[in-house]
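Model it.
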Amino acid sequence: MSDIRRSRQDTAAIGVALGIVLLSLMAVALSGYMWAMSARLHAQGLVGSLPGCPDTELISCGEVLISRYSQWRGLPLAAFGALNYGALLVVGVGLLLTRGGAAWRSLWGVGLFLAGIGTLAGVWLLIVQVVYIHKFCLLCDLTHAAGLISLILLLVGRPAEWFGPIGLRAGGLAVVSVAVLVGGQVLARPEVEVTRIVAGPASQAVVGTQPAATTQVAEIEPVHGFKVTDSAGTVIATLDLDEEIVLGDPEASRVLVEFMDFGCHECKQEFELMQEILKQHPKWFRVLILLFPRNKACNAYTGRERPNVCEVAEAAVALRKHGPEHYAQAHALFFKLQATPLTGGMAWELIKQMCKVDDAVVQSWQKDPTLLEKIKRHGEIVNAIVIGQQIKKTVSLPGLFANGKLITGAAETQAELEKHITQLIGSVDEAGKDDKVRG
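Modeled.
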């Protein structure tokens, strides 16, 4: 009977070891792939769609891998994952070779520690995806699932007489290790690097209709025209500030370009921080808004189909055109109603009430083709800013752009956002000196 029991135990131990080997192999491959992709995305400062990971309303591996939480102290978490699961793979092979005795029990303890790290880190990063990023990375979560299943296998196949001391020691070390990870990300968040995006040749980057070769009449520059230029000085587009969405003091000399979407939670977060900065430093800058709804019905440069955002964007453009004195209030209100959720019908009803017009007037505004044309042009400009070399990628929102420099993703604190703005347009003190010189 004891021989039969021992044979069953050996079979179970082999099954556990094989399972850990296979799961670790998968986790190492996924971690290595994400390590390479994360390095590429951070180098570009852009969010790209990853092969093998769909890009939908809830899922975006690119947005997770470009986020601040994809690193620890400037080092990619995927690299730590590859090392952790590589070590677990070695443990799995060792369990296959030893199959019993003191060496097997020691390897079991090390495996429990490594699988515990993978599981606890996975729980933390899942919380990050839900609470902070609002997007899921299927490849990341699949890797974390490998750690959880490995942990379950090790617990099921544990050596009963050694489970207490070894298990507690391994579990405690795993908790401490992940606590260091969490502390490093929460208390010492990695800095967001400023990424220079150089647009392609002027013939590709310039947005808008150009005069035909036989046309002798030159384009008329708007009185308050603003040229959006890349880091090489190439003009991407010229916008009339009298007709565009501009927030802040119109007398502020420095202009910060922001592209955003009223359905974007991170854009709402950045807007609230921006409002506080503008209250404290009203003469520092004004913000030129480029609408970038993440719905391909009105934006050719996104693959998403977020509901309502096109209609809300059209309503915003209509209000800027017909009731500009109400626009700043509506802009803030659209964000406040974001979680309602804000629908196109609600946006148009708010505009109707603000402008005190009837349904017939609103319906005539809704039929105005120039609203959609402006939104599409904004998308073209954002594409020219971000893409540059005409390589298709997913635009990360919100984006701040000035002087050929681009920062994507929302800041989490006012101080952080002020630092980003300073990197793009200079400090508030420098802006004050410019105003004195002009005065």
